[in-house]
Amino acid sequence: MITKSEWQSANRQLMADRREQLGDPPTAEELQDYMDGKLPAEEEERIRELLVCYPDLARSLAEPFPTQPGFFELYLPSIYRTVAVAAAAVALVFGFMLWRNQQEVTDPRVSWKAVTLMPDGARGIEQPIVLEPETDYLLAPAILDQQRFPEYRVELVNVTTQPHRLVWSGTRERRDDDTFVVDVQRDFLRRGRYQLLVYGVEGSRRERLASYSIRVP
Amino acid sequence: MRLREEQIAAIYRRYRRRLNSFFMRAFRVSEQDAEELTQDTFVRFLQALDEYRGDAEWAFLEKVARSVGYNRVRSAHAKKRGEGIKPVEIDDPGLIGVEPAAPHEPDFVERQHQAQQRQRLYAAIDGLPPGQRQCLQLWLDEFKYDEIAVTLRISQDAVKSRIRDAKRLLRERLGEEPTIPGGDE
Fold first, then answer.
1. In chain A, which among 62-91 make CB contacts under 8 A with chain B?
2. pTM of whole model > 0.80?
3. 3-class secondary structure for chain B?
4. A57 touches chain B (CB under 8 A)
5. What is the least distance, in Å, from the CA of B178 to any CA of chain A?
6. Quick check: A27 contacting B, CB < 8 Å?
């Protein structure tokens, strides 16, 4: 049986011998004219024979030229790229904000400053309590009144404005040392004068127990 | 219409990758060589602007690219021929006293048989009518029917019928016909 490689070996030999006989491969111009069908029959046949014995050239001739890219093929990748870059930037910003938020939630708050407040009229010299705006405070207003109430309410009123404006209020537990705990974050305090008020609440009755004048310079 | 250089640069940026891959496929060249051919193509494109009509940019680019590729194949063949046989440096001191191991080769009888077989097949292929021989030769070189059709500028049906006729003639003359595993059938 004749093998494939024997056929191909004989064919390669034949191609090599024909290259010797026929000479150089056709020029680019001849090939162009051949493909365009512009050559006379005899010349066309000569090119055909040359192509058979120069298969690398024939192979390149047979290789289709890529089709012209359309508008979307040309510009869609750059549009995609732009959108992707914008999306990545937005994701980065949101990611950073989320991280900041997480940090704020999980970071230990070591800068709280605890201050026990004595009520107005019990501090000796009647000066407002001064709080620095850059600091977070744990305020512990103390009350001297021994009367017990089932519930206590604490309010922070901005007295710089006219009329005065309630900026925060909440119920608090009276602790064993007769103080309440009020946390005030630095962002919350704007420059001005405030009054912290503590009320005792029993049913519909509300009694003011103490006030604390505060100034934020 | 005459294209300005910025427009040529835009065309280059747009089509460079397509041209590179075309050169790699069609001319079996490395990526680096393909890049070189692409650059040559654009240089030629720039030089040939006077011939360019401006309404068929892609077709003109194909013409130039193919031309650049064909010239490369041509010059590669010319170079091979120019190299000829290299003389052996018999007085190379590095070769004195060195006996290289003989490569494994078939023995004389086997070689004789192979040579005779090759000669027989050579004569059989060469003896075919030109149209059949051309188709068969490309087919033996593992061209597909559609590639043979494009190369010889004939229809695929003509390619098939010529190869079939060539095989029949070879079977009559040799008692066997060529088969190429994996080729078009």
1. 62-63, 65-66, 68-69, 74
2. no
3. CCCCHHHHHHHHHHHHHHHHHHHHHHHCCCHHHHHHHHHHHHHHHHHCHHHCCCCCHHHHHHHHHHHHHHHHHHHHHHHHHHHCCCCCCCCCCCCCCCCCCCCCCCCHHHHHHHHHHHHHHHHHHHCCCHHHHHHHHHHHCCCCHHHHHHHHCCCHHHHHHHHHHHHHHHHHHHCCCCCCCCCCC
4. yes
5. 7
6. yes
Distance from CA of A13 to the nearest CA of B (A): 7
Q: Within chain B, what is the greatest distance between any pair of CA atoms?
A: 71
Rounded distance, CA B152 to CA B145, Å? 11
Report the residue of chain B nearest A26, measured CA to CA.
B74
pLDDT in tens, A13-56: 999 999 999 988 999 889 989 998 999 999 999 999 999 999 99
Amino acid identity of A83? V
Chain A residues within 8 A of B126 when measuring between CB atoms? 14
